[in-house]
Protein: VOC family protein
Organism: Winogradskyella litorisediminis
Amino acid sequence: MNLNQVTIPSINVEKATKFYKTLGLKLIVDALPRYVRFECPNGEATFSIHKVEELPKGNGIVLYFEVENVEETVNQLKEKDIAFKTKILDQSWLWKEARLNDTDGNELIIYHAGKNRNNPPWRIN
């Protein structure tokens, strides 16, 4: 089994599309204003957004985008007026990350885990 894509809801898919293109995702399906789909710049995963009339309540969605160099990526995104909620943090689970929100309030984490993503020291067999 392989994860193909993740789809998130949006009140304004056009606005969300601009945001995710600014992050560096490549638009591959354009069915605006109701749906779009992106390819991630690395790997084979895809990501889509669909229009909803109301966003879900509660904690919502958290999206993790792994990059090789968190500092470089965060600085590049800040130059494009992307605002972050946190500074770059070295987490106790051995990931370096910075958090932000998209245009619908979904939480995004720009991070690097390297080998610790799939093989942390506490991994069970």
Summary: The beta strands are 5-10, 26-31, 35-39, 46-51, 62-66, 89-90, 96-101, 107-112. The chain is about 15% helix and 35% strand. The chain has one domain: 5-116.
